[in-house]
Structure prediction request, 574 residues.
Amino acid sequence: MGLEVDIRKKVKGFTLDVNFKNEGLHLGIFGASGSGKSMTLKCIAGIIEPDEGRILLNDKVLFDSEMKINIKPQKRNIGYLFQNYALFPHLNVEENIEISLNRKKEDMKLKLDEIIELFKLEGLEKKYPRQLSGGQQQRVALARAIIKNPDILILDEPFSALDFHLKEKLEVELFELLKTYNKEVILVTHNREEVYKFCDYMTVIDEGKVVLEGNTKEVFNNPKYYNVSKLLGYDNISELQYLANDTIKAAKWGISAKMGAKLENEFSFIALKDNAMVINNSPLSNGDIVVEIIIADIIESINHFDLLVKNVSYSQGEVISLKVDKKSFEKINLKENLFLHIGNEALIYLK
Amino acid sequence: MEISPIFISLKTACVATIFTFIFGVFAAKLVMNIKSERIKAVLDTVFTIPLVLPPTVIGFLLLLIFGVRRPIGRFLLEFMGVRIVFSWQATVIAAFVIAFPLMYRTAIGAFEQIDENLIMAARTLGMPETKIFFKIILPLASPGILGGAILSFARALGEFGATAMIAGNIENKTRTLPLAIYSEVAAGNMKQAAYYVIVVLAISFVVILLMNYFGRKPIVKDK
Prediction:
């Protein structure tokens, strides 16, 4: 069951070679722009034909190069929300939504009314797309995609066309609306917050290849690879050295630590997770790694401080950046010696 | 003033424009849908070339096709009883061939301007290709296509060289306005010619007005 994709396609200077399977309800396809996310989507929707491979949706073959099957986009029954919403500019809201329905019968009218109510579009039926706000356009596009009851819904960067201040409100609205739709949804994005909030399963695409897939929380907690951790927004990543078979060293910051167990020499990088690090004035360790630091810079944001700190005993090293909320920041006495406590759960080993 | 050239011209231009419109739009759609770049380029050249050829060359080529000693011309005469050369229909054929590239070019331009995502969206919505063409592509391209039709009309109205060669200059039959002006000047009747010139100027003026109106008309009017 669910969506299974295993396709290859070559276009000038770029090779897409992706293979993944959705094991959740909401799948996030995550990657930087130009990584091949959109192309993957278009292959799934049938807008682009892959060179080879196969695409299955709920055990139905949508594409299979060996069996020479390539179902037309019209017959795939996929709901697709385009990045710029792709509303038909010459049709009003009502006409946009119902254009995919066949004849205007009584039950169609009923369905239309129901959808218009569900998507809070009452009063806008006769308006044209360019008379609508970004959020309204998004709801119309979604209503249009959902009215035919598609087997799967694809959202291509749904918030990238919106102003920043609208984004968060609309995220909540959209995710609420999607709760009424009980089928698979694919969200394509380069925004980690969106994936984390909305998707229970995710696949990370980089340079046309799937680098990691799994449950969203597991992927975020253990990104496994250097490039994935970069994409997921880890700021503090250092090369990792094995000094003895139980001691590691983060070369960038000059921090070394004796680990309890014997270590396999299998990782090349180490990342630090923000929320498992604390700065205070106590040198005492509770089993965590304690490093004396000096503050290189403080940047104040609306809700927190960004601290850039350096290891005192390794002044040529680079800074570690971490967020400290304003309450915790007040408790730190900046005039005394400062210590960074790195909990064990903050250490993420990467290949 | 003999007014038959005015009617012949308007009739010819109208009929030629109807054919140009239909064939131009569908030729544009045909070329757009062809996947092979090479075939596309060849067809595009064939459809566009009357635009750059001298009308007399077109007239010559049309004579090669429809002349009564030529296979097609002879076939039409012997089996259908239709003689194209020096008939009113010939004025329509000449005007059609000359005006066709204008319609075809503007239609292609209008189609290419449509956001590809809209057509893809229509496909994912399950709309059949013909429905997409008539409900999405054609309405969105309509300002450009209407402009092209008006331009074709104007060109058909002014057609001289090809018409003279295939349809001749027969009074009350194939003498269109441009031919009438030529004939009057040749006969030294400058005053007569001036009347026809004024008529042509008036029609052209209205046509350009119409074109500007349709070309700039937005698809959706705000309330």
Observations:
- Chain A touches chain B at residues 42, 45-47, 72-80, 82-84, 86, 88-90, 99-100, 128, 130-131, 144-145, 148 (CB under 8 Å).
- The mean pLDDT of chain A is 88.
